Amino acid sequence: MKKLILIASFIALGTTAAKAQDTFHFGVKGGVNFANIAGDDSADQDSRTSFYAGLVAELPISEMFSIQPEVIYSAQGSTIAAIDEDNFLDVDDNIEYQLDYIQVPLMAKIYLADGLSLQAGPSFNFLVSEEIDYSPTSASGDIDIVDGANDFEFGTAAGLEYQFDNGLFIQGRYTRGFTKIYDDVSAYNYAIQAGVGFVF
């Protein structure tokens, strides 16, 4: 079921882009994630600095309002201070708990002024990778986790965007998961995103 939803999301974006370029707008985006985990059962953790990248398609409803579906790869999780008293592993100063998702936000886009828009809406997120990386500054250290975090997360996203006349835009966004990362643990994903994109 998860794969079918993901495939349908990509098809929907592709169809939206192909229908009529003078009515629909299609673009790409990417940037920096400052991700962390919140909740009563979350440990004392620092944010994980990583990336996000994906595709956007804007469907104008009126001059001031649009619907914007997206498909985004978002690297999330958190960072934990390393403890290696016995020098058993060659660890860095920090260990990353890496939770990477394919996110499918469906944003309402309200134009506040020429080029400036407020965006908010639900996000349907699908886990694609879960790892512990005890050496995040090198190519080694990845430990895959199988049957760990929940495969699906329902969340929300909200932020501001400014688009220039040439199609380039800058964007800031806050994302939050409403679904627990683990069923019996009060811990939730969140991230602050800052990035750029281009609409064709």
From TrEMBL:
Domain Outer membrane protein beta-barrel: 20-182
InterPro entries attached to this UniProt entry: Beta-barrel_OMP_2, OMP/PagP_B-barrel
Domain of life of the native organism: Bacteria
Keywords (A to Z) from UniProt: Signal
Signal peptide positions (record): 1-20
The protein's name: Outer membrane protein with beta-barrel domain
